C-alpha cells in the first residue's frame, strides 16, 4: 500500500531456522543474511513489531534496535554495546553481528567470530575475560543462500575455517535458484556439499564436517543441527550443513515473482513441500494435535502479526505527524500574515493532502515556504526557520550519526603523550622501533594479537614482529595464508568479540582484495547499527615508494573515498607509526595505518616510553617553517619535500612544510589554514594519481577551512603519474614526484608572482 519501499522474504526457510535456533546458546554469534527473520524471532532477538518497524524505516533505536531505520528490511543485529559504547556481557547474550546486503559479505566476519572462540579456549590468559567468552565454548553460526556460495568470499572463508579448525556452523539454504538462475549455473555438480566433498574430514586428516538435511523435514533438521552443534562446540571443527529441498514461495523480493522463471512442475512441488505445510502435517500426524487446534493457532498468529504491523505503523507515523502538524500550524499562520498568502496556501494544501507523509515532505514544505517568505519579516517565518534548524540537527542524528565512535574511548579523545628521549636513547632501524612498540602492546594486554602473511615465524617481511611469536606464542603472533579478504574479516570478527587484533595486509597494493569487506562491513558497522556494535580493528599495511607496479602503491584516493568510517593514518616514519598504534589500541575506533615501505632501515631514535607515547589524530605537524609557500604532504613524500625545501631555500624561497599525519580525520584544528594565512600560497603533494588524495586535501583546506580567501596564487598539486610506477630506480624517479619536480613546480608558482626575482630556468 505504499507504506514501505522494499520487502525481502524468508518464506520457505522457516523450519531450518527453528531447528538452528534450538541449538543457539547464550554467547553464540550469528553472521547471516537477509532471510533469517524466523531464526531471529525464535531466539527472542526480534519481535514482529520490530520487523515491521524496520520495513517502514523507523529511525527510533528502540523501535528498530538493529539499525534505527538505516537499513532495509531483513538486516538483523543485536545491540552489543551499552549506552556508554562499552561491550555488554556478550557471553550471556544471544548475539547477531550486523547484516550487510552484498552476497557472501557475511563470510569473512564469520571466520573471525569463530576464530575468537579458539583463542579464548587455547590462550589461558584470556580465560579471565568471562564477560566476553566462557573459555571459547561459543559457536559462530553462519547462513547463506545456495547461489551466493559461488562467491569467492565463501570459498576463502570455508578453506580458512578448515585450516584453522574453528567452531563455525555454516548453513546453506538451498532452494535451487539464485533469483531466476537455476542451480546448474551456480555450482559444480549442482550441489555445494558435493563440490566441497574434498574438504570432508577423515579419521587421519583435519577438515570440515559436511551434513545434509531436507528443509521440509523437521525431525531430520533437529537431528542434523544437534549433531552439527556438538561437533562445533566440543571439537572445534567447522561444519557445513547443506539444507536441501527448500522452497522460496514469494520469489526473491517485492521486486519480482518466482512464477516468471519456475516451471509449472516446480511450482507444484514447492506448494506440496512448503515447510509450513509439511510442519503442519507432522504436527497433526506425529504429534497428534487436532487440525482444529492448528487452525486456531494459525488464526491467532495471523491476527498477532497484523496487530504488530499496525502498532509499528502507528508508532512510525506518530513522530512524523507531530512535525507535520506543527509545520501545518506555522504555514497556516504564515498564510494569514504574508502578502504571498495564496502561494503559502498551495504549500499548505499539498502538505495536508500528503498520503502517508514522510519527513522529507514536511521539510520540503517548510523550505518551500521560506523561499516564498524570503523578503518578509514575520513571526511565522522566524518559527519556521527555528524548526528547520532543529529538524536538520535531529535528522543528522537520525541518519548521519555514529560514523565514528562517539564514546569516551573515541580515538579523538585519547590523551596525547609525547615521546620521551634521554642521553641513553638508542639510534636504531625504524623496524626496531615498531618491534619494541608491538612487544610492549602484547605484553600489557592479553587481548592484543597480530596476524597476517609472514607475520608469525619470520616476524613479517620487514621484521616488525621479529622474535615476538617465540616470546608471546603462536596464538598472539600468527601466520596466515594468502587471503587478504578473510584476514580483514578475521580481524572484524575478533574485534566484535572484544579482542584487539592487528590484521596485516602485506602490501598496500594487495589492499584491493580486502577492500569490499572493509568498505561494506567494517567502515559501516558503527554507523549501520547507530552505535550498537563496534569493531576496533587496526589494519596494518605498508606502501608508497619502493619499486615496481605492485610494490610501490599509494592508492590513497581509493581508500579515502571507500572507507569513510575507518580512520586513515599515514605516518612519515616508524616512530610516528608506533605512536598511532598506541593511540588506536587505547580507542574503540577502527583504523588503517600505512607504514612507509622505504623507512624500515632508516635510523630513528627509540623513545624511552615506546609503549606509552601517543600521537593524536587530526593534528598535522609543521616540519619546517617558512613564509613564501605552504607545502602539504604525508608519508614518504615528507622526505622528498623536505629535501626540495632545502634546495628552494638556496633559490630564495622559504617553504613551510606540513605533514598532515592523518587523512581521516584531517586537520581538525585548521593548522594548515593558519599557515596559508601567512604564506598565501599552497601546494599539495603526494604519490597518488592526479586528482586523488591531493584533491581531497585541497577540498578540505580551500572549501571546508575557507582557505580560498587567502590565496594569492592558484593552488598546485604534485602527484604521481596516472599509471602504476615502473620498476627500478629510474622507474621510481620518472613515475613519482621527485625533488627536482617539487622544486620546479614551487619555483614556477613564485615566479608567476615575482618574475624579476625568479627568472625562468628553462
Summarize the structure.
The chain has 762 residues and is an alpha/beta fold. The protein is built from 24 helices and 22 strands.
Quaternary structure state of the chains depicted: single chain
Distance between the termini: 72 Å
What structural class do you assign from the helix and strand content? Answer: alpha/beta
Question: Helical element count?
Answer: 24
Largest sheet: 7 strands, mixed
Low-confidence stretches: none
Average pLDDT rating = 96
Described by the principal axes of the CA atoms, the overall outline is globular
What does this structure look like?
With 762 residues, the chain is α/β, with parallel strands linked by helices. Helices cover 42% and strands 12% of the residues. It has a 7-stranded mixed beta sheet with strand order 11-10-12-13-15-14-20, with helices on both faces. The protein has a 6-stranded parallel beta sheet with strand order 2-1-3-4-8-7, with helices on both faces. Strands 17-19-18-21-22 form a 5-stranded mixed beta sheet, sandwiched between helices. Helix 10 (291-337) packs antiparallel against helix 11 (341-353) and helix 11 (341-353) runs antiparallel to helix 12. The chain is globular and about 100 Å long. Its cofactor is thiamine diphosphate. Keywords: Oxidoreductase, Thiamine pyrophosphate.
Amino acid at each position: 500500500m505504499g507504506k514501505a519501499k522494499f520487502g525481502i522474504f524468508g518464506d520457505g526457510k522457516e523450519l531450518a531456522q527453528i531447528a538452528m535456533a534450538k541449538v543457539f546458546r547464550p554467547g553464540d554469534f550469528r553472521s547471516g543474511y537477509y532471510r533469517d527473520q524466523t531464526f531471529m524471532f525464535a531466539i527472542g532477538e526480534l519481535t514482529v513489531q520490530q520487523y515491521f518497524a524496520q520495513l517502514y524505516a523507523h529511525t527510533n533505536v528502540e523501535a528498530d534496535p538493529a539499525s534505527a531505520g538505516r537499513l532495509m528490511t531483513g538486516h538483523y543485529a543485536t545491540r552489543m554495546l551499552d549506552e556508554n559504547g562499552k561491550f555488554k556481557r556478550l557471553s550471556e547474550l544471544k548475539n547477531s553481528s550486523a547484516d550487510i546486503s552484498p552476497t557472501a559479505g557475511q563470510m569473512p566476519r564469520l571466520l573471525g567470530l569463530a576464530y575468537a572462540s579458539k583463542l579464548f579456549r587455547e590462550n589461558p590468559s584470556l580465560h579471565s575475560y568471562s564477560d566476553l567468552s566462557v573459555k571459547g565454548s561459543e559457536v559462530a553460526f553462519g547462513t547463506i543462500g545456495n547461489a551466493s556460495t559461488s562467491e569467492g568470499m565463501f570459498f576463502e572463508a570455508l578453506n580458512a575455517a578448515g585450516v584453522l579448525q574453528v567452531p563455525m556452523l555454516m548453513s546453506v539454504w538451498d532452494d535451487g535458484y539464485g533469483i531466476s538462475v537455476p542451480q546448474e549455473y551456480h555450482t559444480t555438480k549442482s550441489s555445494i556439499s558435493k563440490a566441497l566433498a574434498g574438504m570432508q574430514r577423515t579419521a587421519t586428516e583435519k577438515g570440515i564436517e559436511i551434513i545434509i538435511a531436507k528443509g521440509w523435514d523437521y525431525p531430520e533438521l533437529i537431528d542434523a543441527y544437534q549433531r552439527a552443534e556438538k561437533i562445533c562446540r566440543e571439537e572445534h571443527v567447522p561444519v557445513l550443513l547443506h539444507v536441501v529441498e527448500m522452497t522460496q514461495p514469494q520469489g526473491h523480493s517485492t521486486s519480482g515473482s518466482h512464477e516468471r522463471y519456475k516451471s509449472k512442475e516446480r511450482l507444484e512441488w514447492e506448494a506440496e513441500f512448503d515447510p509450513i505445510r509439511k510442519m503442519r502435517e507432522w504436527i497433526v500426524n506425529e504429534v497428534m494435535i487436532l487440525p482444529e487446534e492448528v487452525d486456531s493457532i494459525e488464526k491467532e498468529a495471523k491476527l498477532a502479526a497484523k496487530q504488530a504491523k499496525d502498532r509499528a505503523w502507528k508508532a512510525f507515523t506518530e513522530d512524523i505527524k507531530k512535525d507535520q502538524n506543527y509545520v501545518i500550524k506555522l504555514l497556516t499562520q504564515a498564510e494569514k500574515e504574508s502578502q504571498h498568502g495564496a502561494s503559502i496556501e498551495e504549500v499548505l494544501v499539498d502538505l495536508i493532502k500528503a498520503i502517508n507523509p514522510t519527513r522529507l515532505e514536511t521539510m520540503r514544505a517548510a523550505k518551500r515556504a521560506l523561499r516564498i517568505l524570503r523578503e518578509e519579516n514575520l513571526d511565522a517565518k522566524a518559527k519556521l526557520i527555528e524548526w528547520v534548524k532543529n529538524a536538520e540537527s535531529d535528522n543528522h542524528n537520525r541518519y548521519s550519526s555514529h560514523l565514528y565512535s562517539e564514546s569516551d574511548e573515541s580515538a579523538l579523545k585519547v590523551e596525547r603523550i609525547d615521546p620521551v628521549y634521554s642521553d641513553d636513547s638508542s639510534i636504531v632501524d625504524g623496524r626496531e622501533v615498531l618491534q619494541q612498540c608491538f612487544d610492549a602492546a602484547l605484553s600489557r594486554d592479553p587481548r592484543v594479537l597480530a596476524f597476517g602473511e609472514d607475520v608469525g615465524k619470520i616476524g613479517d617481511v620487514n621484521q616488525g614482529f621479529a622474535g615476538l611469536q617465540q616470546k608471546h606464542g603462536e596464538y598472539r603472533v600468527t601466520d596466515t595464508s594468502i587471503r587478504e579478504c578473510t584476514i580483514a574479516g578475521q580481524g572484524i570478527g575478533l574485534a566484535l568479540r572484544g579482542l584487539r587484533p592487528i590484521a596485516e595486509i602485506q602490501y598496500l597494493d594487495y589492499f584491493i582484495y580486502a577492500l569490499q569487506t572493509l568498505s561494506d562491513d567494517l567502515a559501516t558497522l558503527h554507523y549501520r547499527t547507530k552505535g550498537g556494535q563496534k569493531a576496533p580493528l587496526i589494519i596494518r599495511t605498508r606502501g608508497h615508494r619502493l619499486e615496481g607496479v605492485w610494490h610501490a602503491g599509494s592508492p590513497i584516493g581509493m581508500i579515502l573515498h571507500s572507507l569513510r568510517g575507518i580512520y586513515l593514518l599515514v605516518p612519515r616514519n616508524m616512530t610516528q607509526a608506533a605512536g598511532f598504534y598506541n593511540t588506536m589500541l587505547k580507542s574503540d575506533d577502527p583504523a588503517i595505518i600505512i607504514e612507509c615501505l622505504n623507512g624500515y632501515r632508516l635510523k630513528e631514535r627509540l623513545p624511552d616510553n615506546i609503549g606509552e607515547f601517543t600521537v593524536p589524530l587530526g593534528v598535522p605537524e609543521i616540519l619546517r617553517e617558512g613564509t613564501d609557500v605552504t607545502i602539504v604532504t604525508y608519508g614518504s613524500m615528507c622526505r622528498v619535500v623536505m629535501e626540495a625545501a632545502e634546495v628552494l631555500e638556496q633559490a630564495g624561497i622559504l617553504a613551510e612544510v606540513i605533514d598532515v599525519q592523518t587523512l581521516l580525520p584531517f586537520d581538525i584544528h585548521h593548522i594548515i589554514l593558519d599557515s596559508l594565512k601567512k604564506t598565501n600560497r599552497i601546494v599539495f603533494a603526494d604519490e597518488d594519481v592526479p586528482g586523488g588524495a591531493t584533491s581531497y586535501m585541497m577540498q578540505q583546506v580551500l572549501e571546508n577551512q575557507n582557505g580560498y580567501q587567502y590565496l594569492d596564487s592558484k593552488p598546485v598539486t604534485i602527484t604521481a603519474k596516472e599509471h602504476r610506477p615502473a620498476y627500478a630506480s629510474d622507474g621510481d624517479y620518472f613515475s613519482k614526484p621527485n625533488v627536482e619536480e617539487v622544486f620546479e613546480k614551487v619555483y614556477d608558482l613564485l615566479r608567476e608572482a615575482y618574475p624579476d626575482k625568479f627568472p625562468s630556468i628553462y
